[in-house]
Every structure is written in structure tokens, then in C-alpha cells.
UniProtKB/TrEMBL annotation:
Belongs to the bacterial solute-binding protein 1 family. Keywords: Periplasm, Signal. This is ABC transporter substrate-binding protein. The keyword Signal applies. Residues 1-35 form the signal peptide. Its main location: periplasm. It comes from Sinorhizobium garamanticum. Transmembrane segments: none annotated. It comes from the Bacteria. The lineage of its organism: Bacteria, Pseudomonadati, Pseudomonadota, Alphaproteobacteria, Hyphomicrobiales. It is found in: Periplasm.
Length: 434
């Protein structure tokens, strides 16, 4: 039988259509889709168990949403801070990224790089917004507009090696005041023990000392006035005294040799290796010291204790005033709706409870607090629950330019390279240039 070359026999056409339909059905049945939406997630987490937790959560979400591909992207902490401003203005901007809240997030929101999440979180009676601890939203909200999805809260406190304390004849419960803390540093040195693991290389770990001393000396009213450039600003006598006390600590040489060049992971390693008795650190220190210890095991959990930053006698601050994180996930302006849907899923009570269960965080999702089972994390959670003033990290709360000066002067005052008066003057000048 003859036929024109430009025509296809009817039987062949039907077979081709059938084959194409069968191929499409096969593709769909295997979970593949031609219209996959990528959700780009930028983080800075280095603990393998915690990254694995996220990967498992993302994989479960993808299995329930076949058209979504969650792509996890990593940057080391310092590289993250250095590269993020440029990245946010580029075509390679992530859809959401880790945020410390405060002035840094506020500045990012003012550049137009971020998505305003207020309507999305308050839709349908505000169910999404109400699923979080209200305090967790505070540092992520400016002028009643929400710019990040809450992820976790945390507080900075002292962690100590119980065996080294016992060797020096120290009891943590006796360290209640700044003077008793300085006395403990001297006692440890006399016993031949390095008192504190310090990280001057990254600078920000040492700003915790200056920040807490400002809080303990001045209280909330003095800090809020300084932040808003009211009255004497950062040149208030209570803030100058905080720097003088920091210099006094520095003169005792309490840190390990080479601390001015030590990164934060190295600092945690010093503590985890038992080479320093204390570290002023985050709520998840038990996990992180283990990861950074030379043997990968670190100190046994039962050998680690914690205590609150001590009060300053005569100061306006209370021991129940806490310094720490109000962390969230900021969403960029061009993020697809799937990014918001995944974020709501990532931070729901069930997933936050699982993350709390491995010592990853103190949850902010309502109903997830029972996931905190680790005694050290439970201590931090209880401290936060009783907090009379929870202050976001100074270097984040004050914005990038002032925050950078805060970190710089903290290190220089401890190292004896700058006086307290010179330090507060530098901060004041940076604040007035804002």
C-alpha cells in the first residue's frame, strides 16, 4: 500500500499518542514533574546531626509536594555575614535565609530585599502568626510589619567543666556577683587551669561580656536610651563602668594562649578538649563543643554545668535579664509561594519538637516546648521563661555598622588596647553617623 510521505497512517498516529500518554503516566507515577519549583534555603549550620534533621524534614515535605525541590545552600558564619548583602541584590539570592533579627534585619527590610510577611502570617485570622511565642516575633517585627518567620530563641550563659571546678575547689553556685566571678578566675589560674575559652578571632564572641556588663550595670532603661541616642547615649556612666570592668577581666589574662586569633569553632574545641574551665556561650553548647572537640566526643554531658551571667552589685540590671537570640528565617522579595509554605511546615510544632529533642534549639512554636529534654537546654529554656528582659545580641540589635564597632571595641578593651571611654566614644560616633 502506498501513502504520501507527508502523512502518517491512522494506526501509527494512535500508537504514537498511546506511547506518549504511557510515558507521561510513567513519569508522573515515579513522582517526577516537568514543572518543579526550586526553594533555595541558605543556612550556616555546621553540626551534621542538625543538618541531617533538616534534610529529613525537607525530604518528607518534598514527598508530600512532588512539584517542590528544596535546595539547601551553606555558607560559613563569617562568609555568610560578608557575602549576604551582595547576594541579596543579585540574581542568585536565596529564597530564605537565617536571620538574627534586630537592626540588621531592619536594615535589610529597608533595602527592599525582603518580603513583608505580615499579610501572609495574619491571613485567616492570624493562625500562622499565633502559632509562635509572641516574644519570638518581637525582634523580627518593625513598625508592626513582620520580616522573618520565627525559628528559635536562645540565651547566652556560662558553661563550666565540673571536673576542673572540683579540682580548683570551686562551686558554681557561689558565683553570684561580678566580683565573685573575678575571684573564681584567679582561683582557677592559681590551680594551673585556664579559666575561660575565648574567641577573639571572630570578635563577636567577646562582645557578650561587654553586652552583659552593660545590661547588669545600666539595666534596660539605660540601654534603650543609649540605643535611641537619648540623654548621655553610650557615654552614660553605667556603660563606661561596664567597659572598665571588662578591662579588669582582661588584665587577669583569663583566656587560652592565642585567644585573639581563635575562631568560634576553635574556642568551642578548647572547652570541649578540657583545656579551659568555662565558656560564655549559646544554649546548644553541649552539642557544639562535642562537634568541635579534637576527639569528636568532647566533654560528657554530665560533666558540664551552666550558670547565669553574674550580677553587678549596685547595678540596675537583674540576674533574670537575659541576652540571646531571636532567630528566624527572612524571605527574599522574589521567593515563590512554595517557600512560605515550606517555612510554615519547617517551623510547625511537630518539627520544632523534633529539633528540640536532639538539643538543636529552644522552640518558638506553641506546643513544642515539651520537646526540650536535654537538662542543659531545659535550664536555658527555664531561664528564658523567667526572663524579665530578653535582649537581642547587641551587634545584631544595633545594626551592622554600630554592631561592628561594638565587636571591635569589646576585643580591644579586653586586650588592653583601648580604654572604656574611648570605646563608648567610638560607638557613639558610629551611632550618630547612622
Amino acid at each position: 500500500m502506498m501513502h504520501d510521505r507527508g502523512k502518517t497512517p491512522l494506526r501509527a498516529t494512535r500508537l504514537a499518542v498511546f506511547a506518549a500518554a504511557s510515558s507521561m503516566a510513567l513519569l508522573l507515577s515515579t513522582g517526577l514533574s516537568f514543572a518543579q519549583t526550586a526553594v533555595k534555603w541558605l543556612h550556616l549550620e555546621t553540626v551534621p546531626a542538625q543538618v541531617k534533621m533538616w534534610e529529613d524534614i525537607a525530604a518528607k515535605y518534598e514527598s508530600e509536594h512532588p512539584g517542590v525541590d528544596v535546595q539547601m545552600q551553606f555558607l560559613e558564619n563569617e562568609a555568610f555575614k560578608a557575602k549576604l548583602p551582595t547576594l541579596l541584590q543579585s540574581d542568585d539570592a536565596p529564597h530564605f535565609f537565617y536571620s538574627w533579627g534586630g537592626g540588621v534585619l531592619k536594615q535589610q527590610s529597608e533595602t527592599g530585599a525582603l518580603m513583608d510577611l505580615t499579610e501572609a502570617m495574619r491571613a485567616d485570622g492570624g493562625g500562622w502568626e499565633k502559632s509562635y511565642n509572641p516574644a519570638a516575633l518581637k525582634g523580627l517585627t518593625f513598625d508592626d510589619r513582620i520580616y522573618a518567620v520565627p525559628f528559635k530563641m536562645g540565651t547566652i550563659s556560662f558553661f563550666y567543666n565540673k571536673e576542673l571546678f572540683k579540682k580548683a575547689g570551686l562551686k558554681a553556685e557561689d558565683i553570684k556577683t561580678w566580683d565573685s566571678f573575678l575571684a573564681a578566675v584567679n582561683t582557677l589560674k592559681e590551680a594551673g587551669i585556664t579559666p575561660i575559652a575565648g574567641g577573639g578571632g571572630d570578635k563577636w564572641p567577646l562582645h557578650f561580656y561587654w553586652s552583659y556588663l552593660v545590661m547588669r550595670n545600666g539595666g534596660q532603661a539605660v540601654f534603650e536610651a543609649a540605643k535611641n541616642n537619648e540623654g548621655e547615649g553610650f557615654q552614660h556612666p553605667a556603660i563606661i563602668k561596664a567597659g572598665e570592668q571588662l578591662a579588669e577581666l582582661g588584665k587577669l589574662e583569663p583566656f587560652q594562649g592565642g585567644y585573639l586569633g581563635a575562631t568560634w569553632p576553635q574556642t568551642l574545641g578548647v572547652f570541649g578538649d578540657g583545656k579551659a574551665a568555662m565558656v560564655l556561650s549559646f544554649e546548644d553548647t553541649e552539642t557544639n563543643q562535642r562537634e568541635n572537640a579534637g576527639d569528636g566526643k568532647g566533654l560528657a554531658p554530665e560533666n558540664i554545668g551552666r550558670f547565669a551571667f553574674p550580677i553587678v552589685e549596685g547595678g540596675a540590671g537583674a540576674v533574670t535579664d537575659t541576652l540571646g537570640g531571636l532567630n528566624g528565617w527572612a524571605v527574599t522579595k522574589n521567593a515563590p509561594p512554595e517557600a512560605l509554605d515550606f517555612l510554615r511546615y519547617l517551623t510547625n510544632a511537630e518539627n520544632e519538637r523534633m529539633m528540640a529533642g536532639i538539643g538543636m534549639l529552644i522552640p518558638v512554636a506553641v506546643g513544642a516546648q515539651d520537646g526540650v529534654t536535654d537538662p542543659l537546654m531545659r535550664g536555658a529554656a527555664d531561664q528564658l521563661a523567667a526572663s524579665t528582659w530578653h535582649q537581642n545580641y547587641f551587634d545584631q540589635d544595633l545594626g551592622p555598622s554600630v554592631g561592628r564597632v561594638v565587636n571591635d571595641i569589646s576585643v580591644e578593651i579586653i586586650a588592653g588596647q583601648m580604654s572604656s571611654e574611648e570605646g563608648v566614644q567610638a560607638i557613639q560616633e558610629a551611632l550618630e553617623l547612622e
